[in-house]
């Protein structure tokens, strides 16, 4: 089984995270941020993995530390669970609609961390979450997971729809990219 656990304890957050890439879709999230929990559950559902996250963060400050540290922890677990990456498909780029919103999420599990995004929002917050923290989550996840991540919000009016399409699209991309399709590393270099 491709699985990993991460414990992250800082002065700002305490996180316990368990990830199973080959799970049955069991998802339990408690970040203390309702909308963020909703997004992580959507991502996990469409990725088809088991995910458990419990975070006690300094939400009296704002949501930044909690969101970023969960991104770092999830990325570290993802990288660990993939191991040597032999046989994975590696690339995926689904386009995901949600009502008026349309989003492309492209991923390359390349061991070359990079984020390119065009996230912009009309609202400062969705629920209790500052919208500027979404970029921090995706950046932390991409860097910690050592993958290239492109997020292109092609159209959309409603901020909730736009970001939910992104999380669903990321889940779909992860599911496709981690699928085992062979026994060798998919790289012209022979290594990732």
Automatic annotation (TrEMBL):
It is an enzyme of class 4 (lyase). It comes from the Bacteria. It comes from Tissierella creatinophila DSM 6911. It holds the Pfam family IGPD. Belongs to the imidazoleglycerol-phosphate dehydratase family. Gene3D superfamilies: Imidazole glycerol phosphate dehydratase, domain 1. Its main location: cytoplasm. Pathway: Amino-acid biosynthesis; L-histidine biosynthesis; L-histidine from 5-phospho-alpha-D-ribose 1-diphosphate: step 6/9. It catalyses: D-erythro-1-(imidazol-4-yl)glycerol 3-phosphate = 3-(imidazol-4-yl)-2-oxopropyl phosphate + H2O. Its EC number is 4.2.1.19. It is found in: Cytoplasm. This is Imidazoleglycerol-phosphate dehydratase. PANTHER family: IMIDAZOLEGLYCEROL-PHOSPHATE DEHYDRATASE, IMIDAZOLEGLYCEROL-PHOSPHATE DEHYDRATASE HIS7. The keyword Nucleotide-binding does not apply. One of its GO terms (cellular component) is cytoplasm. One of its GO terms (molecular function) is imidazoleglycerol-phosphate dehydratase activity.
